[in-house]
């Protein structure tokens, strides 16, 4: 239960991302700087935190074991996650992106076969390839219906190109974030805490952010003071606080794909937090009844998903002779 509450808190702080990114876009800021500045600001903050805990050397030791792996999965988990989200903010309001982002619950379930769980048998621990949780996935489809309902009105008021630019990058990000996060959990194998892992992935993704920043200098010019300040706030609230909370939650259920899917389902609350933020700080128009219906369908899907996951009775009996180690 503690991991679920950590997930809810993470959703609250993650919502700042959608609100502030939309604010920067409306004030004329480039999505390139919204994306890269967040991670550039995160580096010194996380370095100080990890150094005060005297955990920097263990992090370097683990990163040096597989530097290429760290670079690749950090690029997937952070680069292909956040840059597309910022790009989409130029075409959709923050609450709508937050709602569409909940497709990550389905994406996370579809990624399960790429990972293996350790199971104790008479012959010792073996790894069993994960299976797609069909019951949980069925409940997740309710969330997909809610996303479609929310997008209906948006699709009718903008061009096809703008509609696709507002949704396709979010779908890409929805696969990249859980994939990169889970792969790095495998690499770390419990040797690093949440702060160390976030710092390690941030450092490993720096080449991508520096290249993107260089592109931003020539294509959009330097960021404004307001965008710099708001990017720093995103770095603190979403990049550090929310990410660490979410990583702690996933670490607590590491190795149990069912519970991991439940923790990821808590992120459905981002859509309500983001909407409240935009109503208060950006004075956006109140969403239509159809959009409200879509939002509540998303939340209902999250509740159903969690219910099915927690009340599913596991009756599997594992016979060691029928299990082939991977």
TrEMBL record:
This is Multidrug resistance efflux transporter family protein. InterPro entries: EmrE. The chain crosses the membrane at residues 31-50, 70-91, 97-120, 132-152, 158-177, 198-217, 229-247, 268-284, 290-308. Signal peptide: none annotated. The keyword Acyltransferase does not apply. It comes from Paenibacillus polymyxa. The keyword Transmembrane helix applies. Keywords: Membrane, Transmembrane, Transmembrane helix.
